[in-house]
Amino acid sequence: MAVYIPLHHKYRPQTFAQLVGQEVIRTTLGNGVRTGRIAPAYMFTGPRGTGKTSSARILAKALNCLSGDAPTPEPCGVCSLCQAITQGNALDIIEIDAASHTGVDNVREMIERAQFAPVQARYKVFIIDECHMLSGAAFNALLKTLEEPPERVVFVLATTDPQRVPATIISRCQRFDFRRIAQADMEAHLRQIAEREGIAITPAALTLVTQLAQGGLRDAESLLDQLSLLTPPIQPEQVWQLAGRVPERDLLDLVRGIYSESLITVLERGRALLERGWEPLQLYQQLVGFIRDGLIAFTAPEQRHLTALMADTWQELRALGQTVTPENLLQAQDYLRQSESQIRHTTQPHLWLEVALLGWWHLCQGKSGTAIPAAVVQPPASRLSRSQGGGTVTPSSVPAINKSAPTTPSSVPAITSPAPAISSSSPAITSPAPAISSSSPAITSPASATPSSAPDQIESDPIKLWAEVVAQIKKPATRSLFQDATLVACANQQAEIALKSPALLQNAQGKIKDVQAAFKQVLKQTITITLTAPKGEPPNGTPVTVIHPSVVNTPVSTPNHTPAPIHPPPDPVVAPSLPPQRPSLPEIPSEDGVMVAAQRLADFFQGEVIVPAEENEDF
């Protein structure tokens, strides 16, 4: 039984004339051989399947063909040496796979072999495939030989990643960059193969094969070889299924469903694609590429060659432009770009792909910009004034402040005079204000309330704003520190950020400048930042809003002056009762790393650190 030869081996080019789509390289190498201007080293770079290794073998044949007395650009292909090169058993043509021969010892062995004269051929040719895989020491050992090679020795280095090849190596070679093969040239070549092999394939399916190959002729020939095993005639649907790609018709139907008003349609079409076995990440990436093709169809209708779409799909996509604008597609691309990381790294990609599709549909319906309640993003003073009808905050609406209550932190404004007497008609509050120790987190009190309009909101969604700010923080350590923080309020060029634990407050104080720079990148203005960290930690994910009553400073009253009675508002605001706080922990020195770590661990589990009595003095 004869051994089957794959199409990409059977139709491998054997002369420069058979090289597909590389006219400039074909002409340059042919003229160099014809005139006898043979370089000691060549470097062939380019994507896979574009003819680099095949060109190296053709060059070896052209230099050593026995049909003439000198090198020829048109090797005969029938002499003993041409046949030996084709079969890969010529003694003087040495092919080395650098991926499996990366060490310096392999290069030294090759250099030793280069010192000997050719046995059968005119030139000894060394073909080093994927040369970027060589180690640094191997490249250094090769430098001198490439610069001054022995007589009758030619090196050909092939690589798909020239950026990883040292510049000292590239400068010693003649470099040829192989480009992706044009679709028209590839389609003509595949049509010839199909006719010779008797493969019944429709023109639309053949065009689709060339588009899926993305400029790699070997990939196209391998796919055509697989398709030849299907029942003829071969249709585009069979190409999509065999290539493992989502059909562009299904992508078009999904996009139409997203821009319709039926949420059920989006769910049904998305679920149908997943149930047919498509991977969520693959479906997502092809959907992003399809949106890119849609932008080209909307803005450049005559440039279909820039995409990989069939003619009928291209026309239907252009018709979709009557209801969908390029701005809609750009907005969709930005939204999907933010969802890729979640789909790529999650353990439930099917779920998050459906969530992304539903979010895209929601965005198309104009509902994604729904404003959240104003109280979430407004400063405490403004929320307090709004709750009382928008008027001036009167002293009767806030608790009386005991004269003996200490107010030592620098962030709390000093109170130099007691609050004015409260009318007997207002609810009497006799308990003193809670004492604020020097170790408590700094909380900036809002300015005294005055009759003014509500502040302008910078961002209606503080969660989204905070995510954008955190993403703009340059230093990884600072970004990690503020990752779990919460943006409580942001208005009037002021922002209040709540940390999860008081233990993080001291470290965060020194990094405010980095956060301010991130705010400036997002909002294009300078923001004053206040850090808070309440001892009573809120539930995870719940924004914390710390409301401090405004204090109205008045002259110290004397027995000779009776303050004017103050009428309370119709509905006084009663502050909600706060949950009881845990007892204060013993002060932990900042230089004790063990205790600081223990305190952070206790805060995470909402516990406390207990130090044995006999060890208290040590800490």
TrEMBL record:
EC number: 2.7.7.7
Low complexity: bias regions: 404-455
Biased composition (Pro residues): 565-583
UniProt region (Disordered), positions on chain: 380-458, 557-585
Ranges where the AAA+ ATPase domain occurs: 38-182
The UniProt record lists the keyword Cell membrane: no
Catalysis performed (reactions): DNA(n) + a 2'-deoxyribonucleoside 5'-triphosphate = DNA(n+1) + diphosphate
Top class in the EC scheme: transferase
GO cellular component, one term: DNA polymerase III complex
Entry keyword set: ATP-binding, Coiled coil, DNA replication, DNA-directed DNA polymerase, Metal-binding, Nucleotide-binding, Nucleotidyltransferase, Transferase, Zinc
Pfam families named in the record: DNA_pol3_delta2, DNA_pol3_gamma3, DnaA_N-like_STI, DNAX_ATPase_lid
Gene3D superfamilies, alphabetized: 1.10.8.60, 1.20.272.10, P-loop containing nucleotide triphosphate hydrolases
Domain of life: Bacteria
GO molecular function, one term: ATP binding
GO terms classed as biological process: DNA-templated DNA replication
SUPFAM superfamilies for this protein: P-loop containing nucleoside triphosphate hydrolases, post-AAA+ oligomerization domain-like
SMART domains: AAA (SM00382)
Subunit text: DNA polymerase III contains a core (composed of alpha, epsilon and theta chains) that associates with a tau subunit. This core dimerizes to form the POLIII' complex. PolIII' associates with the gamma complex (composed of gamma, delta, delta', psi and chi chains) and with the beta chain to form the complete DNA polymerase III complex.
Role description: DNA polymerase III is a complex, multichain enzyme responsible for most of the replicative synthesis in bacteria. This DNA polymerase also exhibits 3' to 5' exonuclease activity.
Family indicated by similarity: Belongs to the DnaX/STICHEL family.
PANTHER family the record matches: PROTEIN STICHEL-LIKE 2, REPLICATION FACTOR C / DNA POLYMERASE III GAMMA-TAU SUBUNIT
Record protein name field: DNA polymerase III subunit gamma/tau
Organism: Gloeomargarita lithophora Alchichica-D10
